[in-house]
Inverse folding.
């Protein structure tokens, strides 16, 4: 005899698997490693610091 399957639960499980596979593909295509993110953040911080050091007028803090 065949196994009884809740079709709603099976559909949701299949959708979850497909979503996880798609997320993994997107991470590999669009994602950056932690080291790359930290490097970009450091580069941005250095660029901001460089621009701030060359400001003609002092920054007014409120």
């Amino acid at each position: 005899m065949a196994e009884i399957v809740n079709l709603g639960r099976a559909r949701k499980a299949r959708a979850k698997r497909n979503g996880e596979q798609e997320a993994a593909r997107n991470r590999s295509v669009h994602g950056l490693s932690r080291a790359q993110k930290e490097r970009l953040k450091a580069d941005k911080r250095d660029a901001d610091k460089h621009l701030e050091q060359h400001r003609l007028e002092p920054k007014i803090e409120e």
Summary: The mean pLDDT is 89. DSSP finds two helices and no strands in the chain. Residues 14 and 28 are 21 Å apart (CA to CA). The first helix runs from residue 7 to 30.
